[in-house]
Amino acid sequence: MISPNGPLRIGIGGPVGSGKTTLTEKLCKALRDEFSIAVVTNDIYTKEDAMMLARLQALPEDRIIGVETGGCPHTAIREDASINLQAIAEMTKKFPDLDIIFIESGGDNLAATFSPDLADLTLYVISVCQGEEIPRKGGPAITRSDFLVINKSDLAPYVNVNLDVMERDAARMRGKRPFGFTDLSRGKGLQEVIDFIVEQGGLRAGTATSTAA
């Protein structure tokens, strides 16, 4: 499937350790049989996330590119997204049939947002291990992302987190914007994210299904 508008660009943000790379991996594995996909990862001084996705065989290695942002990673996805736009252009030239490009940001905070020139849809990942108060703290990432992923829900009993409180606060802070709880290590909740991407991204419905593999 080739769109005249180019590939759907999906920004994936979130703090260090929230599960961004795991989400990217699971989405690639679930969607790669139906759609042509590439990934751009952002790290401050390394290409660790890109190498991890390659090791996990999320996609063929030539469909994954890592960029080193240096300094503040927020700048590379918002104020000056040129390094990411250049990587996207490189991937689009290499694979003219691309349907989806995932742009995974470096570890960031609740103020992080993607430039509309860079991402068509944004997913923001938080972890219950950060505390049940995270949704009510707000910030653009919580309130404006297109889909909020609340990950590691299986660990809630071990970190004294009430998921009902997180759900209530997320609903209050986000209004009508969707969110969902996930346990990405086991693939739980992934299908809801996939359905959102397919529907809101204008991708044709098909055989993509969630997987914990």
Task: Describe the fold and architecture.
It contains 8 helices and 7 strands, in the order βαβαβααββααβαβα. The protein has helices spanning 20-31, 48-55, 73-77, 82-94, 134-137, 140-144, 163-174, 190-200; strands spanning 8-13, 37-43, 64-68, 100-104, 121-127, 147-151, 179-181. The chain has a 7-stranded parallel β-sheet with strand order 3-2-4-1-5-6-7, with helices on both faces. β2, α2 and β3 (64-68) form a beta-alpha-beta unit. The protein starts with 7 loop residues before the first strand and ends in a 13-residue tail after the last helix. Mean pLDDT is 92; it is low at 205-213.
State the share of residues found in helices, binned by percent. 25-40%
Strand content: 15-25%
Strand order of the largest sheet: 3-2-4-1-5-6-7
Please name the CATH architecture.
3-Layer(aba) Sandwich
Our Rg estimate from Cα atoms comes to: 16 Å
Structure keywords:
213 residues, alpha/beta, Rossmann fold, 7-stranded parallel β-sheet, 7 strands, disordered C terminus
List the helices and strands and how they pair.
Blueprint: E1 8-13, H1 20-31, E2 37-43, H2 48-55, E3 64-68, H3 73-77, H4 82-94, E4 100-104, E5 121-127, H5 134-137, H6 140-144, E6 147-151, H7 163-174, E7 179-181, H8 190-200
Brief sketch in words of this structure:
With 213 residues, the protein is of the alpha/beta class. The chain has 8 helices and 7 strands. Strand 6, helix 7 (163-174) and strand 7 (179-181) form a beta-alpha-beta unit.
